[in-house]
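User: Could you go from structure to sequence for me? I need the amino acid at each position, not a summary. Structure tokens:
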């Protein structure tokens, strides 16, 4: 029973640490990807214009990272891109 508990704890810790992203509002795109270089394959570019760039992570509860003129502006968790953020800016 102890071995099963230990295996469960290690597995949970491994999967939790694999999906942790680090960000700070205002940081540049290059700094963001340097900080999260172990997860670069999990970011998908979903919207790009001269003013906005939006990346999405995979999974059931994806994260959306909004970059406004190469500075991290907002991070949302949800099932789709809330375009209202971009439209209201």
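Assistant: Here is the amino acid at each position, in order:
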């Amino acid at each position: 029973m102890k071995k099963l508990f230990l295996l469960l704890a290690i597995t949970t810790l491994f999967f939790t640490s694999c999906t942790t992203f680090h960000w700070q509002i205002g940081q540049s795109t290059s700094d963001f990807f340097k900080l999260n270089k172990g997860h670069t394959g999990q970011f998908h570019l979903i919207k790009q214009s001269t003013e906005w760039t939006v990346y999405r992570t995979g999974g059931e509860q994806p994260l959306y990272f909004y970059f406004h003129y190469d500075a991290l502006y907002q991070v949302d968790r949800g099932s789709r891109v809330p375009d209202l953020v971009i439209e209201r800016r």
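One structural detail worth keeping in mind: The radius of gyration is 16 Å.
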